[in-house]
């Protein structure tokens, strides 16, 4: 992630004008729910053993019933690479709502801001299109993590490319969002993110996973040994700090918990079943 | 703030002799109340977006009813400057009690220690006088913040000089304490502090604000461009660390919460209405 300077026109939150005119204003709530207890405990515990966090090439294992040793917590590996896990219980939510959300929010900053009103600044698709799809596309986001503003390129990839059985996901009513994370202004890939959403009684649960830094860093288009060497070397010059790891865990927990609180209502208002009756739903 | 070495005669807490002879001993409680839940959560959240914390030249906005986006939390701005906010609910307390406290405590270390018995070491007015006033005067304090001992010069300034409407403050029964914070041993200003106390049902609430480092740093008597350049350059050599920001937030929350617990009784015993009956009240 690259630290960015805010463009003057970019701003956190909805302006008075946006609150008055945005079709999404009624879903904009600048007050976040309190941090869930299990997230607070994970922050207090701090870094944990790397072996408790499977590597990204084993992420397909999320499809196996049950839980990983650490569902909420983080580790810093010997090479400085970071792995973060966050579990978010989501009553009333279905996995399909999140599949819709990841396509829908990327078209408009006003949508993106609903998700984390205290950190999300701007979003747009790299291809400039406004259709409802995300796999294979790159979302360019500007957001705070902690006190620092970052410009990030999120390249969504098919779950199968990371080892998920997509037919079985569909059969089980599960959704997995997978992406290669990188810098927006320079062609450097910095890590991976995966959000696995599966049905549970009364709703769904999201299991978020991040692998960042170390061997995950490499120049775009250089998946081989040389790219790995360049990436690791670059990372050693500016490794992720422990404080940043914690801030990223807080950020993910906050945004997922916050949106889950009103996602069913947002989906009813702007989701696939509501498009005909809500023209504003596609307004950018 | 400058790190100091404790003078041998300086000590934390009340000695056995002080406990036996000090007129304030019955108000000395070395046990602090637990950190309020909202402060714990702010510590767990960590740094937040700078845009959520108004700059010092907008501090007069505290007089507007309502709350700021973050009432308890901190940010580190792109230039490394720090902004900290702490909200302290204070049942039974009135704003006038704090106005009295800021003048009264500065005359004697035994009074100052009541406020934060685990961090406050010594206090005295730079002008050596012992009268009850603080605006326009400089309080020289020696206190721990975290594990480090600091000697700080706190130059109290009129609220109007920071943009407050003093007539309206008086009419609303509100009190604002404003000060320029600096090093005690060298003529360097490091930041600003503001405590806004307003009545709420059942008592009062204090909204503390700190702006430290970065552009807030400058040599005493050099408010212009050159002073700003010198200040920013000096600050880059020794910026405030994230750990110190958290420690300062804890320190403020502890001292305000602790004193608020017995300030009404202290005020009854030594405040303006009690001077005649409590000769010891003015003893240094």
TrEMBL record, chains A, B:
Domain spans labelled DAPG hydrolase PhiG: 55-268
GO molecular function: hydrolase activity; metal ion binding
The keyword Coiled coil is assigned to this record: no
Pfam families: DAPG_hydrolase
Cofactor(s) recorded in Swiss-Prot or TrEMBL: Zn(2+)
Superkingdom in the source lineage: Bacteria
Keyword annotations of the record: Hydrolase, Metal-binding, Zinc
Family of this protein: Belongs to the DAPG/phloretin hydrolase family.
Identification of the protein by name: DAPG hydrolase PhiG domain-containing protein
Organism placement in taxonomy: Bacteria, Pseudomonadati, Pseudomonadota, Gammaproteobacteria, Pseudomonadales
């Amino acid at each position: 992630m690259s630290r960015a300077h805010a463009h003057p026109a970019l701003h956190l939150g909805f302006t008075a004008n946006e609150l008055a005119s945005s079709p999404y204003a009624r879903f904009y709530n600048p007050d976040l729910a309190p941090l869930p207890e299990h997230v607070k405990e994970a922050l207090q515990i701090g870094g944990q053993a790397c072996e408790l966090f499977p590597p990204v090439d084993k992420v397909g294992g999320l499809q196996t019933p049950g839980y990983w040793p650490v569902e909420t917590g983080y580790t810093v590996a010997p090479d400085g690479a970071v792995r973060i896990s966050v579990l978010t219980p989501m009553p009333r939510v279905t996995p399909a709502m999140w599949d819709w959300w990841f396509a829908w929010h990327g078209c408009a900053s006003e949508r993106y801001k609903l998700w984390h009103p205290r950190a999300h600044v701007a979003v747009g698709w790299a291809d400039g299109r406004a259709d409802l799809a995300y796999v294979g596309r790159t979302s360019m986001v500007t957001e705070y993590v902690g006190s620092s503003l970052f410009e990030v390129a999120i390249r969504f990839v098919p779950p199968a490319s990371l080892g998920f059985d997509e037919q079985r996901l569909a059969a089980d009513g599960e959704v997995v969002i997978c992406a290669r994370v990188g810098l927006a202004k320079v062609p450097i890939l910095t890590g991976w993110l995966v959000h696995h959403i599966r049905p549970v009684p009364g709703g769904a649960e999201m299991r978020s996973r991040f692998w960042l830094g170390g061997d995950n860093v490499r120049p775009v288009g250089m998946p081989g040994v040389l790219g790995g060497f360049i990436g690791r070397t670059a990372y050693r010059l500016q490794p992720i700090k422990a404080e940043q790891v914690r801030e990223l865990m807080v950020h993910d927990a906050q945004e997922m918990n916050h949106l889950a609180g009103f996602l069913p209502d947002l989906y009813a208002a702007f989701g696939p079943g509501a498009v005909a009756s809500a023209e504003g739903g596609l307004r950018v």
